[in-house]
Amino acid sequence: MGGGRSKRMPRAVREQQMLDAAVQTFARRGYRAASMDDIAELAGVSKPLVYLYLNSKEELFSACIRREAKALVAAVHAAVERDVPADRQLWSGLRGLFAYTAAHPDGWAVLHSQARTQGEPFVREVAAMRAELVSFVEDLIGEATREADCDPKFADREVAGLAYALVGAAESMAEWAGSPDGPGAKEAAATLMNFAWVGLGHLMHGEKWTPGG
Predict the structure, then answer these.
(1) What pLDDT score was predicted for residue 204?
(2) What is the mean pLDDT of residues 149-175?
(3) Residue 198: exposed, middle, or buried by beta-carbon count in 10 A (0-12, 13-18, 19+)?
(4) 157 and 98 in contact (C-beta within 8 Å)?
(5) Residue 2: how many CB atoms within 10 A of its CB?
(6) H helix runs in the chain, sequence order
(7) Alpha helix (H) ranges present in 104-155?
(8) What are the angstrom distances between the C-alpha of 24 and each of 27, 79, 113, 163?
(9) What percent of the chain shows pLDDT beyond 90?
(10) Whole-angstrom Cα distance, residue 164 to residue 25?
(11) What is the predicted pLDDT for the residue at 151?
């Protein structure tokens, strides 16, 4: 009877079931300690079926990273308020990021803790996600500079650097926001905006910090 149910279940549904089990296992046991036996048992399927669908542990892990990265980026874009000033768009996007990572701790652990420490090709998968987020933030900062009619010396290179810094800070803060005693998504987003955007406002008008001496 079990085999019959497996055959009737659409392949896409079965594959997502395996990925769900794999994300949970990789997040909680770590990539190296996780086994295909563990994943198959949690998914309620045979180990040969996992190999049939996803070929190897490495390919399964890569598939998990791609799925979780795509979902995270989609959640950020979906949270962004449209037709509002750039700072409001960024705040709502950050709020969406923190809300999503707190609601999906296993997926975030795979992206933030596991994938980044296992070398290629996993690091490259996460880098692609980060590049997409950086590009999104860079566009918003660029829009803000236009809205503010800022100092023309505010170079594209500086905007890019600020976008990388903001995304990196958001990734670090997501762990805090998802902790049991951490802030809610709105508070975390507001904290980061106060840290980054207020300083950005000074920078856009030519007020820069220098080490002096």
Answers:
(1) 63
(2) 80
(3) exposed
(4) no
(5) 9
(6) 2-8, 11-29, 36-43, 47-54, 57-79, 86-103, 105-109, 122-147, 156-177, 185-204
(7) 105-109, 122-147
(8) 5, 25, 13, 31
(9) 53
(10) 30
(11) 61
Section 46-52 average pLDDT: 92
Residue with tokens 């856009």: 204
Lowest mean pLDDT among 6-20, 50-64, 109-123, 183-197: 6-20
How far is it, in rounded angstroms, from Cα 197 to Cα 90?
Answer: 10
CA separation, residue 39 to residues 33, 34, 110 (Å): 11, 8, 14
Q: Measured between alpha carbons, how far is 74 from 132 in angstroms, rounded to an integer?
A: 11
Q: Measured between alpha carbons, how far is residue 81 from residues 72, 86, 91, 101, 190 in Å? A: 16, 9, 9, 19, 15
**Sign of the C-alpha dihedral computed for residues 96, 20, 29 and 33 taken in this order:** negative
How many residues comprise the chain? 213
